[in-house]
Amino acid sequence: MTANTPPKALAFDVFGTVVDWRTSIAALVGQVLSAVGRPDIDAFAFTDDWRMRYLIGMRDFGQTGRGFVKLDILHREMLDALLVDMQLDLAEADRHTLVMGWHRLEPWPDSVEGLNRLKRRFPLVTCSNGHIALLVNMARHAGLPWDAILGAEVAQAYKPAPAAYQRTAQALDIAPGELCLVAAHHGDLFAARAAGLQTAFIHRPLEYGGAPAPDLQFQQPWDYEAGSLTELAERMGC
Amino acid sequence: MTANTPPKALAFDVFGTVVDWRTSIAALVGQVLSAVGRPDIDAFAFTDDWRMRYLIGMRDFGQTGRGFVKLDILHREMLDALLVDMQLDLAEADRHTLVMGWHRLEPWPDSVEGLNRLKRRFPLVTCSNGHIALLVNMARHAGLPWDAILGAEVAQAYKPAPAAYQRTAQALDIAPGELCLVAAHHGDLFAARAAGLQTAFIHRPLEYGGAPAPDLQFQQPWDYEAGSLTELAERMGC
To answer: What SUPFAM superfamilies would the database entry show (chains A, B) (predicted)?
Structure first.
């Protein structure tokens, strides 16, 4: 842990850091697959494949020349491609149900308490590639007390582009070094640090169901490290 | 009151509708003027003059060719011009104190309860010309439970330009007609209706200390009308 001036605000990665996308989406995938008579397909493998396409898509987004797109659209494109590869046809309504499932993810058990404690001292904002409508729906569903929904849509840039982090600080009228990104992903924190932000790593060993994270090559000592958001609150004196 | 499909979300004007800028700023102006030995200057007249410059500035902003600017900067420019006209010199620190006073305005007595009731049923967002940092600070100071901070900075357009309203709906992924602007100002509601939004008028007869509002020429029957945000919650079944 580096000695730092305390940040003036905290910006959160959301998928995986605050909410457990894998359990929530796999449950929904399982329901849909059962309803269409395909309970033999592994819902977790389906979910992991869908998510991996997203991670690759975001990593390479800067090369596509596309501007900001609401995440629902990207999720839908990646789902359609996954279904083609699986040679599985799903009805329009089922595809819509699956895409909208990302609006109703469940928080990790410590998230709501941890955020409420951190909020006493710090403004809490999102710094996610999710779009505003999705993050508003998720916050209302899961009880996440954000002070503002910032990130890709407001910045008009996706993480890990530096602008996604720097424009989030700019929207709060603070310097990048006064903002701390809280994330369970080394790759995200690596990019945030390169953009000038402080960094807080949250261990989420179950994000991939216990499998190793895909971004371990970016691991390094972060400014803060904690096993949960309540532990981060403790470390930050909240 | 017009028969309407209920809105899917509520967007709030903030200054005057949710918070009582006049009482809060006049108190601060009074403190600063006393401290510099000018308690003879009428703090309410000072405040009203400052605010009127803002209203005129916003009305005419589209003609200036300037892009979005954080409201602190506009407040400072208007304060500096007011002080020149008054032939009153204030130190840099005092000017800064006055500008930052707009981050710490007090809510009207019904605002916090009304918003919390409305929030049970509707996502609540700001649709203000204030910038994000100001509105985050104000919400934390006054306890305003916004689901998202939208409006001029996210839309990169000031009210009453149609884009300020339409991009707020777009950020929520709903049609303009599914969003209801809640405001104490007929001019704001007139522009919102022209942009396709539903409209809710809140009577705030003390916004100008009992003096008539400057936008009475835009008065017309609105979709909802109420004497407070708790009354609006009642009318909307919250």
So the answer is: HAD-like (SSF56784)
